[in-house]
Amino acid sequence: MATPIRYSITSLDPASHVYDVSVTVDSPAPEGQVFSLPAWIPGSYMIREFGKNIVALRGESGGRKVQVRKLDKHTWQAAPCKGALTLHYQVYAWDLSVRTAHLDGTHGFFNGTSVFLAAHGFEQGQQVVEIRRPEGETFKRWRVATALAELKAKRYGFGTYVAQNYDELIDHPVELGEFALASFQAHGVPHDVVITGRVLNLDMTRLCDDLKKICEAQIAFFEPRSKRAPMERYVFMTLAVGDGYGGLEHRASTALICSRADLPVKGRPEQTDGYRTYLGLCSHEYFHTWNVKRIKPAVFAPYDLRQENYTSLLWLFEGFTSYYDDLFLVRTGVIDTDNYLKLVAKTVTGVLRGSGRKKQSVAESSFDAWVKYYRQDENAANAIVSYYTKGSLVALGLDLTIRQQTRGRRSLDDVMRGLWARYGRDFYEGVGRGVGEDEILALMEQWSDADLKGYYDRHIRGTEDVPLEALLPAYGVAYEVDLPKDARPWLGARVTKEGADAKLATVYEGGPAMQAGLSAGDKLVALDGLRVPAAGPDGLLARYRINDTVRIHAFRRDELMEFSVKLKADTAPQVSLKAVGKPVAVVRQREAWLKSRA
Predict the structure, then answer these.
(1) Contact, 16 vs 76, CB < 8 A?
(2) What Cα–Cα distance (Å) separates residue 196 from each residue in 33, 237, 245, 489, 526?
(3) Low-confidence ranges of the chain (pLDDT < 50)
(4) What is the CATH number of domain 178-284?
(5) How far apart are CA 213 and CA 191, in angstroms?
(6) Where are the alpha helices (H) located in 368-423, listed in sequence order?
(7) pLDDT one-digit tens code per residue, 198-236
(8) CATH 2.30.42.10 corresponds to the domain 489-569
(9) Has this prediction a pTM greater than 0.85?
């Protein structure tokens, strides 16, 4: 039996934001062992060049120095040597996100893609990691949160952890520090909730109760008979900060960032918008346990972490997940129908605002994620569409269309369970394969008993808006489009603060600013002779009427320019959705959709 690849990770000085890492190969390749760090992390479709954060690297074998040559931006080769080979290296970690690594005197966090060099030729073998506590009194109360299996460590303690291969190793993020910890059982599987950061009067009991409902519903959704979860243990890891939002899925855990104000407070039973958003994020990442971590595009089975892996199916893996995340909140009673419809209406309004939806389909958006969605510029709203948000509306439209065509006998739920049974259930049992780019339409039609080709061509491969205005009334939901009653003059741009300046971040296609010649990046100086504050011109614009013309001075680079802008009303549709109470048959159809149980 091959000996495992052995890693160790610690920090000699967390204040330096540097992890000290080593990797040992007992039987290195005779021609010179090759190592590499991934260029991207699954779930975040952008080349991030993690190798750039390695600030020092050296090799040794038997106490002697071994020369290491860098082959490219993320690959190294050690000179041939006899006996075990160890690379010692340091990784700079100062990105406070869920995608990479972060370290200071308050906590540490890392994804394996940022810190663990893969030993080429040994990726399928066992990988063992010793996580060591930093030295010093400051760190004596630190603990370890991860879903990695313990080898020589107590749960939540420093020590040795194990993964059965490199793909598993990098699919278990690690949180280090002092954190609040609670647990609940979902259909017999332990689920741990870890909250790092200062949160006053955190109502962990309420949070666990709500998450338990969501997790049990999703487990039963995919396995209605056995109610068997695809993991032995699950960990929700959240870093609470002053202002933040984000999540990244993993096979048995998720890493989250939220604003501390979004978390529930003891003694305050009201449900805030922020808490609903946080629960939706948790639901989203948990649904990914099935949809993308096990049901995958064929190009992700396996991942090629050296370069982009192109797929036109992210509308299915991210868009469908974005549909089901809030749907499970209402199906479990965590939120009510009115609040659910408000969330959907907000998504519809946001999608309809961007003119990019008329130029790019969700299939194209998926394929171009590497160069467009994850690298958005000032023209993004005018050029691209989100496979998350429009993808969620595509899923909603598909669900209602299937229910309508089959008179309630089938739904999108049947499609998801079909995908799970064929592609996901046994993925990590050595027989996993991914969904082919050209087979998804046939699969959806097979499991739904519906004719979906027209819908697929128009709304997935094409750029037509999802016809929710026509679909929703049959399910007792009124679709209304209005301009705000207090519509005010609109500049047609998104303004951000940059130091003491108000900067145009986005200039919307066809809006007053673009028609007048203003451009993204321009810094507003004055409006009709009055200084524009850094917060933007809204306060000044409030004193004007629609169709008034104003004189704007702005700097473009170092040149002062003057523009004549005719103000308009913001004509972007404001969508509202409301549940209606009659007739009874329509209400029953809505309840079958929003209150269905596995």
Answers:
(1) no
(2) 38, 8, 14, 43, 44
(3) 598
(4) 1.10.390.10
(5) 12
(6) 380-383, 389-405, 412-419
(7) 999 999 999 999 999 999 999 999 999 999 999 999 999
(8) yes
(9) yes
